[in-house]
Amino acid sequence: MARIPENKIQEVLTKTNIVEEVSKYTNLHKQGRNYVGLCLFHADQTPSMIVSPDKKIFKCFSCGVGGNIIQFVEKINNLVFPLAVIKLAKEYGIDLGNVDDYIPKDPYSSEQKLLFKINEDATNYYQAVLYNKVGIMARNYLDQRQIDRDQVGQWQIGFAYENNLMQHLLGLGYAEGEIVKAGLATTNQASQKTYDYFQNRITFPVKNKDGYVIGFSARVLDQEKPKYLNTRETLIFKKSEVMFNIDYVLKNKERFANIIVLEGFMDVISLTKIGYPNCLALMGTNLSAFQINILKQLKKPIKLFLDGDGPGINAMYKIAKLLINNDLEFSIVDNLTAMDPDELVQTNQVEALKKMVDHSINVYEFFLEKFTLNEVINVDKKTTIIEQIFALLKYEKNLLVVDGVFDQLSNKLNISKEILINSFKQKQSQNLQKKVTNWSSPQILNDNNQFSLKPKTRKEDMKLKVLIALLQSKDYLTEIKDNLVYLAGADQHSYYFQQVCNTLINYYLEDKYQGNDLERFFSLLSAEKSKLLQTSVAQLKMILNQPLAKENFKMHLSSKGLEDIIWQAKFDQLNQEISDGNDELKALELQVDQNNFDPDKVRVLSGEKSKKQKELLILLKQKSELIALKNAKK
Questions:
Q1: Cβ atoms within 10 Å of 212's Cβ, excluding its own
Q2: 362 vs 79, 302, 303, 332, CA distance in Å?
Q3: d(CA 11, CA 229)
Q4: How many angstroms separate the CA atoms of 28 and 30, rounded?
Q5: Long-range contacts of range 341-347, CB-CB < 8 Å, 24 or more positions apart?
Q6: Which one, of 523, 531, 485, lies nearest residue 504 by Cα?
Q7: Cβ neighbours of 352 (radius 10 Å)
Q8: Is 491 a residue whose pLDDT tops 70?
Q9: Which pLDDT tens digit goes with each residue over 279-294?
Q10: CA–CA gap between residue 299 and residue 2 (Å, rounded)
Q11: With 0-12 CB in 10 A as exposed, 13-18 as middle and 19+ as buried, what is 469?
């Protein structure tokens, strides 16, 4: 995919009318030089979005969403950047040349798209069967669950009746093998006969993030086991990548203040029905790396709402460690009942459920309460509780939070805070020693062109995390590109780091690299004309095979983690510039003293000294503003 020329992007920004574009979606009222209206990206009650025709930007001063007209079209239509530019260019008659050159490559293979189509046709068939005479029992069950016809349409609920789907799909021209590959049919090895995989079950389509049906979860109408049957693993249905309702949540994320994470799809359907459309389900109690990345993309606080029984609490504990480790902001809905969210809705406990959701609690408060509830707190129990809380705290990066937890733990267990802190430090030290003992990092040799990523300094550790984040995906491509000059620093290795990152960024933009494929990256780098990049492949392999690098590949850098790194890089650069400026100022003062016999030279040096003092004042102001920005976000 070619890049849209910068001059064409600027032409789109110049010739389009942001007021006209935003007015297509919400009513705007003139207020002075600007226009105001209800924000489209959160549940706005009073107009909080301002559109400036002079600056050609929009900004919501409530939820913080803003940008230019291209970014507005991206967000409101859920489009990638090139498609947003093309859409605007067509509307305003701007010639981009051959737009096919700019359209992103289809992420799905022809075989995947075939399976999507088979599942879509199966969905339509199941829906038709539900309202056929054979679907009466299924309709009665849905009535009992208070799922009306509108909701049936919203979730595309259907009914798989006996063994007739395959014949229908064969009649549409699909091959038997294709239907089996889609997970909709299975072959009996003994008889070699092929049957429908789902029979006599109510079907609930499961979609991927782009809205394609990838499979089904199907519920029995009687006591047959299993109660729920999911599509088997296929080319397009992988349980670790399934999040029910993710297509809707991703498309509408700007409208939501938070995201509620549930266990099952029926929980999502029930909570949506009572006014919580910001729900998605894991379809189980495990959280995979894929699902963590999806949650990071949402960039919203999470409310974890699972069952309130023992297994539910254990599942939340396991998930909590992953969320803390990945810097994801979250709280826990304290389910004080023995029922799951869906059962609470079905038993008319909606007000109690809403109260629990709206008053979710801090993760540490939740587990401290659960671990000490109805327990005899003897020495052994105290030790167990401390170890469980420490296992969460070891991932926590906010020292104020850590300190607060020590206070709570001290009060709960009647143990001095100092003993807890010393015990935690000892535990952390032991864990670190184990890691260090297991490291077998090769000594990386550097020349003046190359940069060391061996974890010797904070700056090198930051560079390693940034490079790995960029290698994993293009999620932070814009942020890294815009701040690369700070991230690279000003040492002798900065040029090489910038070269590698810029090259990788261009691979993404040219659609040569899609992320998380080191062999592909090394292959592309080996073919570069630049000798510097060609000869760096072996060294980069050594760097990225170090234990610390492998750990970073597993962890996935969060948006907050990257924001902190960028802030620190800017802060370090300002400090260095201030330090260098002070050294230069001292040198000028010394020269003034040494040349006091030469008035002309003193005048010139004094002018340079005054100029340097002004530069230092600007740098100090920038540093102060940077610190204030950091404090404001806490």
A1: 18
A2: 35, 11, 10, 6
A3: 53
A4: 7
A5: 341/262, 341/267, 341/270, 341/271, 341/305, 342/264, 342/266, 342/267, 342/269, 342/270, 344/270, 345/270, 345/271, 345/273, 345/274, 346/145, 346/146, 346/270
A6: 523
A7: 13
A8: no
A9: 999 988 888 888 888 8
A10: 29
A11: buried
What are the structure tokens assigned to 81, written together? 């950047």
The closest alpha carbon to 613, from 592, 629, 630, belongs to 592
The token pair that represents 252 in the structure block: 């509408």
What whole-number distance in Å separates Cα of residue 42 and Cα of residue 200? 41
Pairing of strands 34-37, 279-281: unpaired
| Residue 293 half-sphere exposure toward CB, CA atoms < 13 A | 19
Q: In 3-state terms, what secondary structure has residue 182?
A: coil
Structure-token pair, residue 631: 């404090």
Query: In one letter, which amino acid is 180?
Result: V
Among candidate residues 250, 341, 262, 357, the one with its CA nearest the CA of residue 296: 250
Residue type, 294: I
Considering just the CA atoms, what is the radius of gyration of the chain in Å? 29
What's the CA gap between 159 and 123, in Å, rounded? 9
Instruction: Report the DSSP pairing between strands 213-220 and 228-230.
Output: antiparallel
Mean pLDDT score, 549-555:
72
Distance between CA atoms of residues 504 and 35, nearest Å: 41
Contacts of 532 (CB under 8 A, 6+ apart): 449, 496, 499
- Distance separating the N- and C-terminal Cα atoms of the chain: 40
**Cα→Cα distances 633→300, 328, 563, Å:** 15, 15, 11
Neighbours of 322 (CB within 10 A): 18
Identify residue 391 by its one-letter amino acid code.
A
3-state secondary structure 374-437: CCCCCHHHHHHHHHHHHHHHCCCCCHHHHHHHHHHHHHHHCCCHHHHHHHHHHHHHHHHHHHHH
**Hey, which residues does 388 pair with through a beta bridge?**
none
Residues 575-633 have pLDDT tens digits of 888 887 787 777 777 776 666 556 666 677 777 778 778 878 888 888 888 888 777 76
What's the DSSP call for residue 458? Answer: H
Please give the C-alpha separations between residue 22 and each of 67, 70, 84, 240, in angstroms, as whole numbers.
12, 11, 14, 38
Angle at 240 between CA 234 and CA 244, to 5 degrees: 90
- Strand (E) or helix (H) holding 603: helix 599-632
Among candidate residues 507, 532, 530, the one with its CA nearest the CA of residue 520: 507
Residue 536 dihedral angles phi and psi, to the nearest 5°: -90, -10
| Lookup result for tokens 């948006």 | 559
Task: Show the CA angle centred on residue 327, arms to residues 321 and 330, nearest 5°.
Answer: 70
Q: Which amino acid is at 284?
A: G
Question: Considering only CA atoms, which of 509, 507, 500, 508 is closest in space to residue 467?
Answer: 500
Whether the pLDDT of residue 278 is over 80: the answer is yes
